[in-house]
Amino acid sequence: MIIVDTALEQRERDGKPIRIALIGAGYMGRGIARQIIIRTMGMRLVGISSRSVSDALRAYSEAGIDEVATVESVQTLEDSIASRGAAVTEDPLLLCRAANVDAIVDVTGDLELGARMALEAFAHGKHVILLNAELDATVGPILKTYADRAGVVVTYSDGDEPGVAMNLYRTVRTMGFQPVMMGQIKGFLDRYRNPDTQRAFAEQHSQKPASVAAFADGSKLNVESTMMANATGFTPVSRGMRGPQCAHVKDMIGSFSADELLAGAPEIDRARCREVFEQRFTARRMAEDYVRIYEELIARGAQRKTGT
């Protein structure tokens, strides 16, 4: 059996730390950078990518590292890592392609970019750890297929709700019990919260108003529950989920019938879901939508120039 802490200690003693590259230097990204640099033996944060290099530099600086190289090519990045330096870049794909990076941590929250980065990382033999719930909920099972083909691992992070819930799920199964329902408890839920109502709180805690609104209005619960459903095969009790109020977690049992708990909740028609998805999100349909948007923007620009 491999215990994570002792395995990392051994890598530290052997001088072979896991070389981590971080993509995203926002609130969560900076926290991860500090954790790896200051607290975690057996790992080394070799590079950070962000749309703004200043944010990547800030992440290193807050962890006590001020001597950082800004790189624009795979070769200069690899040279920095080989010399045990720290590097930042605006191009996340450089981190995915560098030969001396072992694993990528995605903290972007960006669906399209996250998918591109994951596939590029797989193509170059790198493991991917996600703190990108939007990506995992949408195409997580697809990414798992590509990762398996490449012989690497794609996983969500431990410590956040979906990862903790999956650990509990596996523990219960190991004990010989059959899990019949999964969910999350929310101490505060107001479905009418929005970025404007959460702006002051977000600014106070250096977070984005849209993200804080998702924490309060139930969006985050739905996204993370989707990840749990994808991992276990569980299906929603109802569209949009269901959340009975209760004073204690034990009261949840009385909120669902025995048939729901033991026989499973009514399943969503997966064939119909796939049919609708293919109608709305095929490559051709999405390309046509993009072309239509570009044509509208060009037409508006022409109108402004002519004054019509």
What attributes characterize this protein structure?
7 strands, 3 domains, 7-stranded parallel β-sheet, Rossmann fold, about 300 residues, alpha/beta, globular
Helix and strand arrangement:
Blueprint: H1 4-14, E1 18-23, H2 27-39, E2 43-49, H3 53-62, E3 68-70, H4 74-82, E4 86-89, H5 92-97, E5 103-106, H6 111-123, E6 127-130, H7 133-150, E7 154-156, H8 161-174, H9 195-204, H10 209-217, H11 219-232, H12 258-263, H13 270-281, H14 283-306
Parallel strand pairs: 1-2, 1-5, 2-4, 3-4, 5-6, 6-7
Describe this structure in words.
The chain is α/β, with parallel strands linked by helices and 308 residues long. The chain has three domains: 4-156, NAD(P)-binding Rossmann-like Domain (Rossmann fold); 176-263, no CATH class; 275-306. The protein is 55% helix and 10% strand. It has a seven-stranded parallel sheet, with helices on both faces. The longest helix is centred in the C-terminal third of the chain and has 24 residues, at 283-306. The relative contact order is 0.07. The mean pLDDT is 88.
By CATH, the superfamily of the largest domain comes out as NAD(P)-binding Rossmann-like Domain
SS strand fraction: 5-15%
Largest sheet: 7 strands, parallel
Structural class: alpha/beta
Distance between the termini: 73 Å
What is the H/E order?
Answer: HEHEHEHEHEHEHEHHHHHHH
Mean pLDDT: 88
Provide the number of structural domains: 3
Low-confidence stretches: none
Q: Just give the CATH class of the largest domain.
A: Alpha Beta
CATH topology of the largest domain: Rossmann fold
> Strand order, biggest sheet?
3-4-2-1-5-6-7
